[in-house]
Amino acid sequence: MKFTNGIEIIGLEEIPLIKKHDDIPNIILESLRKMGLSLLDGDIIVIAQSIISKSNGRTINLKSITPSEESLELYNLISSKAKKLGLPIKDPKLIQLILSESKEIIKAEHVLITETNHGFVCADAGIDKSNVDGKDVVSLLPENPDHDAEKIRKELKRKTFKDVAVIISDSFGRSFRVGAVGVAIGVSGINPILDMRGKKDLFDYELQSTIIGQVDSLASAAQLVMGESNEGLPIVLIRGYKFEFNENTTIKPLLRKKDIDLFRESIHKKLVDCMKSRRSYKFPFKDKRVDRNTINECIEIARWAPSAHNGQYWRYIIIEKLELREKLINLMNQKLRNDLTNDGKSEVFIENKLNKTRKNFLDAPVLVLLCLDIIELEKYPDKERLENEFILGVQSISSSATYLLLAFEIKKLAACWYCAPLFAKDIIKETLNLPKSYVPMAFFTVGYPIKSVPAPPRKKLQEIIYEINI
Ligand SMILES: Cc1cc2nc3c(=O)[nH]c(=O)nc-3n(C[C@H](O)[C@H](O)[C@H](O)COP(=O)(O)O)c2cc1C
Predict the structure, then answer these.
(1) Distance CA 117, CA 157 (A)
(2) What is the second-level CATH architecture of the domain 8-264?
(3) pLDDT at 229 over 60
(4) Rounded Cα distance, 416 and 342, in Å
(5) What is the pLDDT of residue 227?
(6) Could you tell me the distance, in angstroms and rounded to a whole number, from the CA of residue 417 to the centre of ligand 1?
(7) Fewest Cβ atoms closer than 10 Å to its Cβ: which of 317, 363, 421, 427?
(8) Which of 275, 280, 352 to mutate to test the pocket of ligand 1 (most atoms within 8 A of CB)?
(9) What's the CA-to-centroid distance between 419 and ligand 1, angstroms?
(10) 70-76: long-range contacts, CB 8 A cutoff, minimum separation 24
């Protein structure tokens, strides 16, 4: 029986070990001839990157590399992580090479994920030790795989008059799934993607977003025959796959644009997003316990804030016992009532304010008090320097408070900074039996939010940057 919907995947045999300047099209045709095959229109030739790199002279001996300071730093960073996981440690020379083959480091963990100069996101910038002769010799990705594919396609056409497609392939590991698969890194004669949008499915529904990465599927199919180790089949013929021949193609449409790449968030963008999405949360919290460990982890981050003379004058007190919190708020409110009465405020106003304070500080799942410990501030004989020293203490603990709020944001906790403790320092110190040198400065209500808070307006840059006109 003759099947009409299948494709054939044929490894080309007797491909010699490739050297610089070898004529790949000739090698392909020679192998086909020996196998009793000839090219047909619509055939696809998939070629392993390693042999293109070798024929282009894109191999390099690591011994010839001098690692830069940046690569040594990266080495220190990733080797400790790799060691912990029992994974092989990368040579700083290899790291240097990865850096020079990359535009951007995307992740530097136990592996290095970078964006190569071509725009591929992969481990180690595609630099490979396997199937390369010489102990310290590695292969780099071809400089322009599209161009290599086109050159080979055109030469095959010139010699056989057949319109074939050429795919240069490599194998990349994947995010979210274990196991490397074949991917295309250069194409000629075939569109890298198959845009199915607007076509109908089995049930006559119009497809809205289906885009098939057809050259990656073809590269993966070829990989099954190529193998990864010593199979010696770096060139594969795929026959019977129906595609639209196109002379003007490039791998580029397959590369997801940075601004719509969900998995590509740079550390820089994450940090900016976190800083800009933090809000002062003044609404009721979810009825969900906040783990003490989570709070401790946030305070651990807050510890890394800058402080004058590295004094780290911040002291955090987590007020857990409800009765204690209640006693404290009642006493604070008594003082607040006196203060507001003395200010001449109306009873309605006062009641409103007291209820708000009660609600804020009693209903929050966690209440954190921040104190300034003045014990380590420098002592001066004059008032001005003494005052300034106090201010720098306040400034320092404020930077820690900001770190704390950002840490909450990272943990998806909501929080608000309240200055009420400033107005009830003695009551707080006495009720909580705090050391003498502690100055209560702020409360943070913390919990899981039930809603998102719109960003309050921000002043324009021109309003906050004062230009000197001298
Ligand atoms: C030092 C300081 C003290 C604050 N005290 C209070 C307060 O007592 N009551 C309150 O409702 N919000 C307080 N806030 C929160 C501010 O109102 C809030 O940060 C500001 O409106 C900006 O909103 P955002 O944090 O959502 O950007 C305080 C913020 C800071 C930095």
Answers:
(1) 30
(2) 2-Layer Sandwich (3.30)
(3) no
(4) 28
(5) 81
(6) 6
(7) 363
(8) 280
(9) 8
(10) 70/99, 71/95, 71/96, 71/99, 74/99, 74/105, 74/108, 74/112
Report the candidate in 318, 289, 288 with the shortest Cα–Cα distance to residue 302: 318
CA of 298 to the centre of ligand 1 (A): 19
Q: Are 56 and 142 in contact (CB under 8 A)?
A: yes
Question: In the β-sheet with 235-239, what is the strand arrangement from edge to edge?
Answer: 8-11, 235-239, 44-48, 165-172, 181-190, 245-246
Instruction: Please tell me the predicted confidence (pLDDT) of residue 266.
Output: 67
**Ligand 1 atom with minimal separation from the 398 CA:** 1
Largest CA distance in the chain: 104
Tell me the CA–centroid distance for residue 282 and ligand 1, in Å: 9
Cα–Cα distances (Å) from 398 to 144, 316, 374, 393, in that order, read 52, 12, 14, 9
User: Does the pLDDT at position 110 exceed 90?
Assistant: no
Q: Which atom of ligand 1 is nearest to the CA of 420?
A: 8
Nearest CA to ligand 1 atom 9: 418
Tens digit of each residue's pLDDT (9 = 90 or more) over 154-167:
999 999 999 999 99
Which residues line ligand 1 at a C-beta cut-off of 6 Å?
A: 279-280, 282, 416-420, 456
pTM of the model: 0.68
> CB under 8 Å to 176, separation ≥6 — which residues?
none
Q: How many CB atoms lie within 10 A of CB 193?
A: 14
Measured by CA distance, the residue closest to atom 11 of ligand 1 is 418
Nearest-angstrom CA–CA distance, 91 and 70: 13
Superfamily for the 277-447 domain:
NADH Oxidase (3.40.109.10)
Q: In the numeric block, which tokens belong to residue 157?
A: 């056409």
Q: Locate CATH 3.30.1330.100 in the chain.
A: 8-264
Residue ranges, CATH 3.40.109.10, the chain:
277-447
